[in-house]
Amino acid sequence: MKDKELTPQEKFILDSGSRARILDLFLRMYTGESVDTEWAAKYFNVKPRAIQRDYEIIKNVLEKYLPNKVMVLNREDRTRSLDIDEGVPVSGVIAVLKMIIGTRAFSKEELEDFKEDILSLVSYKERPMVKTLLAATLSKYYPVDVPDDLLMRIDKFSEWIVKRKPIHFEYRNGYPGKVSEFKGVPINLYFDTSFYYVMIYIVDKENLSENPLVFRVDRFVFPVKELRKSYNIPFDKKVDEGVVINKMFLLKMGNDVHYRFQYWSNPQTALNKLPGSEIEKSMPDGSVIIKGEIFSEGALLWIFSQGDQIKVLGPRSLKIMVKERLRKTLELYK
Q1: What is the pLDDT of residue 1?
Q2: Rounded distance, CA 58 to CA 47, Å?
Q3: Do 270 and 234 share a structural domain?
Q4: What domain count does the chain have?
């Protein structure tokens, strides 16, 4: 720490006696600073012994009110600092952060904030090792196209789900520039393939083939309006999140393929069921071209569930698999 001209606040602390001095030392260490005893004695114009007594008081306070924090003596420079007593193991932190980075779900700014929050659970002396292990991965981090406020969105939807709060919202679907309006009650929130999804029971549209519907959290237009009116959700519409995740797992079998489909049914059905999909263009006959990335076996399961409403345009390997499955199916009816 370097000497500097004192601010009025610092002068007030120096003139306030030992209680203010102890609080000042504690807050410095609590916010990550290391305190040098000789510097502190000179700064507060007291003897080093007084600073040592302050340390003892801070230790007692920590033991009573913050048992997960301990004061440590840094052997190299003889400074005092606070550390975490039995913090989260480094292996656990690395595993969680590597997994989060691998999803590519957050912007670089939010990922950096998230990383710092998790690092705060690790001992100070172990943080440099964690940062070193993450450096190479973070330098090549390229997130999916998501807004910078994803955590805020997740927080809001979590609140609405818990409170069963109906909302009126605008949603950007796969059509470039197209925004749709809905009223509904968020039911649950889940993550799959780089994106967060929220399941919403729609209350303002009749004759929906599927209800509740699934929406990508990053495609909502914020702010979202909360509604005062309450709605009763039929019991059979309260979908179990575990069932949804198990169904999504079926789409994760086989080899990874980049697909193009021509689709004649409601485009939103495909966009909801195929994470990361998007509409490439609209066709004159009312169909759309949808592209994305999926595992081959999962693609086949979904393709055959759509009957004559879909045509595979590519890749060639997927078209061959579809034709072969159709051939085998026809064989069964001879």
Answers
A1: 46
A2: 17
A3: no
A4: 4
**41 with 78, same domain?**
yes
Question: What is the value of pTM for the model shown?
Answer: 0.58
Query: For the domain that residue 320 is a member of, what is the CATH number?
Result: 3.30.70
Question: With bands split at pLDDT 50, 70 and 90, how would you rate the model's confidence at 237?
Answer: low
Three-state DSSP state, 207: coil
CATH of the domain at 32: 1.10.10.10
Domain that holds residue 215: 150-240
* CA gap 36, 78 in Å, rounded: 7
Confidence (pLDDT) at 103: 82
Query: Do 77 and 94 sit in the same domain of this protein?
Result: no
Q: Which amino acid is at 64?
A: K
The residue count of the chain comes to 334
Tokens describing residue 154 = 């997740």
Cβ contacts of 295 within 8 Å, gap of 6 or more: 251, 252, 253, 254, 255, 256, 257
Are 112 and 183 members of one domain?
Answer: no
SS3 (DSSP) at 147:
coil
- What is the distance between the alpha carbons of residues 312 and 216, in angstroms, rounded to a whole number? 24
What's the distance, CA 69 to chain centroid?
28
Which positions ≥6 away from 98 have C-beta within 8 Å?
134, 137
Q: Which two tokens stand for residue 178?
A: 């197209």
